[in-house]
Amino acid sequence: DAGVHSKAWYAATCDRKMAEDALYQSNKDGSFLIRKSSGQDSRQPYTLVVFYNRRVYNIPIRFIESTRQYALGREKSGEERFDSVAEIVENHQRTSLVLIDSQNNTKDSTKLKHIVRVS
């Protein structure tokens, strides 16, 4: 267990569209939640959904079997790894998260500031 189920930012029953709608409604930079990934793949169990600059970013959270740790996005050398999903959230409440817009090839960054609850 990634330590997500008791957390305010975990939207257990939320799909991608619900998450995106909730974040657009919040309309605050740094709004976020974590949902189950659409694919139900054990190597990518969750998705971090972040609102910034009128856009919603869906960032995969990978589970690394060999180390039993979690990491964000595609695998890269020197990436940060965490022992739980909660550690990812806590870390990015203190340090900025890089947001990559693959369509426009731009980079932004924001901290995770506002928990969005999906009803």
TrEMBL record:
The keyword Plastid does not apply. Residues 9-116 form the SH2 domain. It comes from Erythrocercus mccallii. This is BLNK protein. PROSITE patterns: SH2. InterPro entries: Immunoreceptor_sig_adapters (IPR051751), SH2 (IPR000980), SH2_dom_sf (IPR036860). One of its GO terms (cellular component) is cytoplasm. One of its GO terms (biological process) is cell surface receptor protein tyrosine kinase signaling pathway. Keywords: SH2 domain. CDD domains: SH2_BLNK_SLP-76.
